[in-house]
Amino acid sequence: MPSRFSPEDVHRLATLARLDLSEQEVALFAEQLSEILAFAAEVQGIDTGSIDLAGNAGSPVVLREDDVQPSLPREDVLAAAPAPDRGAGLFTVPRVFRE
Question: 36 φ, ψ to 5°?
C-alpha cells in the first residue's frame, strides 16, 4: 500500500468504483486518502502490548431467563399495516432493490 495516494491511484480507484471525478476532486481525494493512510499508520504504531485482550473474561456472564410471551394477534397487526395481504397473512412494503 502506498504511503501517499497519487492522482493516478485515485483515477484507478475511481475507475474501479465507476466514478467520474473532476481533476479538482482527484486532487482533493488524493490528499484526503493520504491523510487517512497517515492516521492509520499512526494508529498501527500504538503499543497495545499492555492491554488485556480478554477484556472481562474473568467476570461472570449473567443472563436472564427467557420469559416466553404471546405475540400480537395477526389480525391486529394486519389491521395496522398500510397494505396488508390478509389472504397470505402478510403485509407488503415498497421494493428496496431495483432489477
Answer: -65, -45
Sign of torsion, CA 79 85 91 92? negative
CATH code of the domain covering residue 36: 1.10.20
Name the domain count of the chain: 1
- Angstrom distance (rounded) from CA 22 to CA 14: 11
Tell me the pLDDT tens digit for each residue of 89-98.
888 878 888 7
pTM of the model: 0.49
- Burial code (b: 16+ CB inside 10 Å, e: under 16) for 84-94 equals beeeeeeeeee
How many angstroms separate the CA atoms of 50 and 28, rounded? Answer: 38
In a domain, 78, yes or no: no
* pLDDT tens digits, 61-88: 778 888 999 999 988 888 888 888 888 8
Average pLDDT over residues 24-33: 95
